[in-house]
Amino acid sequence: QVQLVESGGGSVQAGGSLRLSCAASGYSTYCMAWFRQAPGKERERVARIYTGSGNTYYADSVKGRFTISRDNAKNTMHLQMNSLKPEDTAMYYCAANTRGGYCYTGADFNYWGQGTQVTVSS
Questions:
Q1: How many whole angstroms separate alpha carbon 117 and alpha carbon 18?
Q2: Which residues contact 76 (CB under 8 A, 6 or more apart)?
Q3: Half-sphere exposure of 112 toward its Cβ, with a 13 Å CA cutoff?
Q4: 83-103 pLDDT, tens per residue?
Q5: What is the Cα–Cα distance from 12 to 15, expressed in whole angstroms?
């Protein structure tokens, strides 16, 4: 069993920054990711990182602005979000895959956090 606890969401003006954190407890993870979902929109994978290699993926919409990282010693993942835009407004979810295999869609992740709200005003 893995528990994921997100923190760091909030409200910020366009152009500002926020840093999300996800603390994982329990079983070790194979990969972790951040997803987001805005009202009326489909869930979107924002960034993904493999726990072992550190290999990362970013959605085109956040590339160059967001940075995903992990601290394996603390079992924590972060998402540094810079140059935030109103379209980044969403609930952000931390997700973990403990089974291996693919780390692409939401179905590949078997543990989810409760979500943290990010609101960017223009």
A1: 11
A2: 21, 22, 23, 24, 70
A3: 14
A4: 999 999 999 999 999 999 999
A5: 8
